[in-house]
């Protein structure tokens, strides 16, 4: 029996009550007056659309069980009803086929989903059902992002003002130096997440990609040609691909008995091209929305589709920067080191990924042949899960990561550079030494928390013990006090 991931479940009872289940689902009990007027699938569908959270995955499964003739009779009974029109539109949208009827409708166009409860996309008018299609994407890929309390709080933060404050607090020279350093730090962190130790050449190629993030035309960023070029640039040359995968991919690891443990089974190969085209359509349909929401949907959407054998994680994190720069969340001269934050908060990052993968792994069925190649057995039952992900938790994760990166990581790097310059200036006023020598002293001091390591002093024979004591005192005044 399929278990569908629902974030809100409603029931009719004797009195109104709300509670939260162990899996985080909100369970709401409504009084008898809320009961559907008739005990039919369509009246319950209407109730669900009014009171429960959207799950297109679940709706698709429901629509596959309904009788078309009964559905059309329900629509003809009250064709202009707001929820009747929504049901008719969603049935055709999810199934990719028109009902054999020509609904005669009246009244104003109605929004398909409530913009007070959900993040909505740019409107496409559907004259057949007189519906404002304000979904975030199309039938091949359409995430849902719920405006819950956590997300609403994040969206109320004026990130531009916080970045402006930092730029006003520090000199342009320090800001530029911090940016140059952060490009390299972000690159190394992105590889570190994958537990890779790349060659200097691969590091430099990724840095070049980050410098060019957000600069290519928006219509090119999610094309197969462009993404394949990115993949070729960042992976070991032996694992370059000529395009999207045509094989079943998965994420897993081997245990001590060399048995494969599967963490995530990716969409079937025949789904990859349509879903990637759907991801590009979604990017187009959501232009003008919050950059954080768009960066989350594009980047997590990409990594869950997993169109390549290797490099998906690094491209996923590159796409965060591409959207943030493209949408002018940050300028072309600055990067927010979200990968560095993720490295230091891997539990939260893993939880954001597993919030999507774990429910799927409870539903998906697959076989493995003697070569270890997988085949999804119940693809029709899990297609909707791949195509219509709820990315609310992932969006909240990214929003909090960006918030904490700006408040702590970015401001910390700027403060460090400012103190570094102050320390270096005072050391060189104290002892007129070469620039390189002063840098070496500061590195050793910082690595040893302000106490110059005794074993290193022999390499600085020109500096006396008394001078070392004074240098340590200056360091303490600047960095520790």
Question: Short summary of the structure?
Answer:
The chain is mainly α and 481 residues long. 54% of the residues lie in helices and 8% in strands.
Provide the CATH architecture of the largest domain.
Orthogonal Bundle
Average residue-wise pLDDT: 92
Spans with pLDDT under 50 lasting ≥5 residues? none
- The number of E-state strands comes to 10
Gross morphology: elongated
In whole angstroms, the N-to-C terminal distance is 63 Å
Structural class: mainly alpha
Tell me the name of the CATH homologous superfamily of the largest domain: Fido-like domain
Residue fraction in strands:
5-15%
User: Share of helix among residues?
Assistant: 40-55%
The profile of the biggest β sheet is: 3 strands, mixed
Query: CATH topology of the largest domain, anyone?
Result: Fic-like fold
Instruction: Write out the strand line-up for the largest beta sheet, numbering strands in chain order.
Output: 1-3-2
Q: Rounded to an integer, what's the Rg over CA atoms?
A: 27 Å
CATH C-level class of the largest domain:
Mainly Alpha
SSE pattern: EEEHHHHEEEHHHHHHEEHHHHHEEHHHH
- Helical region count? 19
Number of domains: 3
How would you portray this structure in words?
The protein has 481 residues and is mainly alpha-helical. The chain has three domains: 8-133, no CATH class; 188-406, Fic-like fold, CATH 1.10.3290; 431-480. 54% of the residues lie in helices and 8% in strands. It contains 19 helices and ten strands. The protein has helices at 41-51, 56-63, 68-77, 82-95, 149-155, 159-169, 172-193, 200-211, 218-221, 224-234, 269-285, 291-305, 312-326, 338-344, 346-363, 379-387, 392-430, 435-447, 465-480; strands spanning 8-12, 17-20, 26-30, 110-111, 124-126, 131-133, 250-254, 260-265, 366-368, 374-376. It has a three-stranded mixed β-sheet, with no helix packed on it. α7 (172-193) crosses α8 (200-211).
């Amino acid at each position: 029996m399929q278990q569908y991931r629902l974030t809100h479940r409603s029931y009719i009872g004797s009195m109104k009550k709300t509670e939260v289940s162990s899996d985080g689902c909100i369970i709401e009990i409504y009084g008898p007056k809320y009961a559907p007027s008739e005990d039919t699938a369509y009246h319950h569908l209407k109730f669900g659309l009014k009171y429960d959270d959207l799950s297109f995955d679940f709706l698709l499964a429901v629509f596959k069980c309904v009788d078309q003739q009964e559905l059309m009779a329900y629509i003809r009974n009250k064709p202009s009803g707001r929820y009747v029109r929504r049901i008719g539109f969603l049935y055709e949208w999810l199934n990719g086929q028109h009902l054999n009827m020509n609904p005669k409708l009246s009244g104003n166009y109605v929004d398909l989903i409530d913009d007070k409860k959900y993040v909505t996309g740019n409107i496409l008018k559907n004259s057949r059902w007189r519906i404002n299609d304000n979904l975030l994407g199309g039938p091949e890929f359409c995430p849902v992002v719920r405006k819950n309390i956590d997300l609403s709080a994040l969206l109320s933060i004026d990130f531009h003002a916080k970045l402006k404050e930092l730029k006003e607090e520090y000199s342009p020279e320090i800001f530029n130096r911090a940016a140059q350093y952060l490009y390299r730090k972000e690159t190394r962190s992105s590889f570190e997440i994958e537990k890779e130790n790349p060659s200097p050449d691969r590091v430099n190629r990724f840095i070049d990609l980050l410098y060019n993030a957000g600069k290519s035309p928006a219509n090119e960023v999610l094309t197969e040609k462009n993404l394949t070029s990115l993949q070729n640039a960042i992976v070991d040359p032996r694992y370059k691909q000529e395009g999207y995968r045509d094989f079943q991919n998965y994420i897993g690891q081997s245990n001590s008995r060399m048995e494969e443990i599967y963490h995530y089974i990716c969409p079937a190969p025949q789904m990859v091209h349509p879903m990637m085209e759907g991801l590009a359509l979604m990017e187009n349909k959501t232009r003008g929305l919050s950059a954080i929401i768009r960066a989350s949907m594009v980047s997590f959407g990409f990594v869950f589709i997993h169109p390549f054998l290797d490099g998906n994680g690094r491209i996923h994190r590159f796409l965060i920067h591409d959207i943030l720069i493209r949408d002018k969340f940050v300028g072309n001269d600055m990067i927010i080191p979200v990968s560095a934050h993720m490295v230091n908060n891997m539990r939260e990052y893993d939880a954001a990924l597993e919030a999507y993968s774990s429910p799927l792994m409870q539903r998906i069925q697959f076989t493995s042949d003697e070569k270890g190649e997988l085949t999804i057995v119940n693809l029709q039952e899990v297609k909707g899960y791949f195509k219509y992900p709820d990315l609310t938790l992932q969006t909240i994760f990214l929003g909090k990561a960006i918030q904490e990166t700006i408040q702590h990581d970015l401001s910390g790097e700027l403060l460090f550079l400012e103190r570094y310059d102050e320390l270096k200036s005072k050391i060189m006023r104290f002892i007129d030494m070469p620039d390189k020598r002063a840098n070496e002293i500061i590195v050793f001091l910082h690595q040893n928390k302000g106490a110059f390591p005794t074993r290193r002093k022999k390499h600085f024979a020109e500096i006396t013990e008394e001078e070392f004591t004074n240098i340590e005192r200056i360091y303490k005044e600047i960095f520790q006090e």
